[in-house]
Predict the structure.
Amino acid sequence: MSTLLVFRPTRKWSTVLLAFLAVAALALLPTQVGSSVNASNARNQSKPTIVLVHGAWADGSSWTGVVSRLQDEGFTVIAEANPLRGLLSDSAYLAAILATISGPLVLVGHSYGGAVITNAATGNSNVKALVYVDAFIPDQGETVLKLNVAQPGSCLGGDPTQVFNFVKFPGAPNGDFDLYVKPALFPNCFANGIPSDEAAVLASEQRPLTLSAGSTPSGTPAWKTIPSWSVIGTLDNVLPLAEQRIMSQRANARITEIPAGHLSMISQPQTVTRVIEQAAGDNE
């Protein structure tokens, strides 16, 4: 006759069994947590890289308020150091940076930086959107200096010797100069809408644009094939409102107008960030 053996766990075995089950449960946790992290990383990797290009008489720090907000939303952000040496060379420099970045890109250009992204993005299939902030949006053959005075009202128009300090730089081609906005003119012209003490600091920190950069004809414009957005400061004293509207409409850009001066990414970074996110979101 067979004997049926029935296992009746002792208290000691019960303790061992519970410990085993606890360890097994813990072993599952890294997989579950790892899956959540991987999902989060995948979402972040699906976001385009945002490349911010400053304009003349500025540097990458002008994007600080925008950068922090974009990073909080999980974007990878590069505030490119625009050389400000010449439109063609500046555009080539940016294009070289873009070639090192994999995945989709959104380019954002302020002022002269708009002319740079217009040229640098041409032919780059990774660039999914262009965002212009108080920016020049040139067509082929146009120059920044001519666009600046195409409509009346720019504080940089008039006698150049009354607007700029001309500085000869080493190796400059004949007739070329570094242009600095006169410090006394800078706060009300370039930085209206910014607290006066901050505007004075910006005037002291300005990086010059070469005269030749402003007078170089633009190449084939990327906005003819890439979707565009435009943030227009209606109180801009540098680039007249009428000209910004003309260029933005010509580029078929989605326009956002705000009551800001030429440095709207400093005075209203939240609005500029929102437009960039719209451009990025439409292309994820």
About this structure: The longest strand covers residues 127-133. The two ends are 73 Å apart (CA to CA). The chain is about 40% helix and 15% strand. The mean pLDDT is 88.
